Amino acid sequence: MSATFDELWAELAPLGRHRPTGGYRRFSWGPADVEVRSWFAQAAAARGLEVQPDRNGNLWAWWGDPGPDAVVTGSHLDSVPDGGAFDGPLGVVGALAAVDELQRRGARPLRPLAITVFVEEEGARFGVPCLGSRLLTGAITPERAAALTDADGLTWARAMEKAGLDPDRIGPAPELVDRIGVFVELHIEQGRALARTGDPIGVASAVWPHGRWRMDFSGRADHAGTTLLGDRHDPMLPFAETVLAARSVAAAHDAIATIGKAQVQPNGTNAIPSKVRAWLDARAPDEATLQAVVEGVDAAAQRSSGEHGVFLASYQESRTPLVEFENGLRDRIAAIAGDRNGPVPTLPTGAGHDAGVLASAVPTAMLFVRNPTGVSHAPDEYAEPADCHAGTAALADVLAELLGEGPG
Ligand code: GLV
Ligand code: MN
Ligand code: MN
Asked: Which of 190, 208, 258, 371 for a ligand 1 pocket mutation test, highest count of atoms within 8 Å of Cβ?
């Protein structure tokens, strides 16, 4: 199994890599995405799996008839800007290698199996994360998804159409969701919990509630050399105070808040900006704390905007509620994975996942692979090959058990 994992990993590794940074730029429907999707389709077909996109552009590779009560595994292949190699691909390569292992064992599954590749999990291009799984389960309306735009103003509908898919068909797909008996996602851990406990793999207990808020600070463009300080309406100033407020409010609530993306107009060295658009990413262990953080940051942003004669408009772009994975399935998976690895810890995560979205509709679980530094969403994201193999072996064991064994 480790040989096929390594082979698949080596094939996928160069696709969409930005050489100067060493990070990945795999954005939904873009050229790198087309490459990785076609790589997946070929790899799945080589294993005798039937590959089809669903009406939302997620890929499904079926082993056996796409029937009911299917065991489904998979993850995503898109990335954040200059993302790491493992976030998403580990779960897709692991799933393909796990199927190899089941086929090598001569498995005769009683249930169908599918490997999925979800589109726009990171929301890096169109702003809403887990867009493919949200559409599939009805967590976002097709109208809203179709109208989402990328940085160039291209809509999701048009981008999908350019990729050869029919945007008029997007939306909830109960006929597909109803076929999922269980979904299991293998993923790199995006923190250091497993490194601290010394465990190669873990099982997810929960996904923190989280969301994205866009803040538009509108001021007045003017000359940087001649406009007296007291005459300015400089949106950069409340923006800067908001960045600091995000940090201090989050710290005060034992939560997390980040402003990692901002756009300045017109972005000239010797010009006071007319507008700063920024995105707040906030996460907390519970809904009330998340709400308090967002309200605290917004209050600080409004106060500072008022002081500087700047107009602030804030919008929620996405929000994902707390997910607590089903305890029975979680414990069953931990027990199966534990047969090879000894006791497997369960841990919550602040990262979002398609599994978190699917959990509202079907029994869902996640397996995590140790990340020695915890770095993620960055080129230094890493997992040791031996740990990737351990995660893949655990996934194969879990799938084998869930699939059951038919008569020979
Ligand atoms: C996705 O990985 C997220 O947590 O933003
Ligand atoms: Mn991911
Ligand atoms: Mn991610």
From this structure: 190
